Amino acid sequence: MEKVKVEICCGTACYLLGAANMMNIEEELPAEWRGKVEVAAKTCLELCERENLGGAPYVRINDTEIMSQATPEKLLTRIGELIEGAQ
């Protein structure tokens, strides 16, 4: 199974609207998920100008899936779905 790739937008708007709360998401992963998730902070995913600020903070998962209005809880749920679905 490939790792679940999580990119958290840390542009100004996303950071202020909640991305800062997701920066330590790896520490919240259950032990059995650790090593299966790769988390990276990105300077800006440039989604605010395309989508709008109302969707911030943004997270990109596995290069294609965009999560808007992301929260740690929402992100953990989605990571779990991807890990469990791959087994």
What labels would you give this structure?
four-stranded mixed β-sheet, globular, 87 residues, 4 strands, alpha+beta, 21% strand, Glutaredoxin
Descriptive notes:
- The protein has 87 residues and is α+β, with helices and mostly antiparallel strands.
- The protein has a single domain (4-85), classed as Glutaredoxin.
- It contains 3 helices and 4 strands.
- The chain has helices at residues 12-16, 25-28, 72-85; strands spanning 4-9, 37-42, 59-61, 65-67.
- It has a 4-stranded mixed β-sheet with strand order 2-1-3-4, covered by helices on one side.
- The longest helix is centred in the last third of the chain and has 14 residues, at 72-85.
- The radius of gyration is 12 Å and the shape is globular.
- The model has no long low-confidence stretch (mean pLDDT 91).
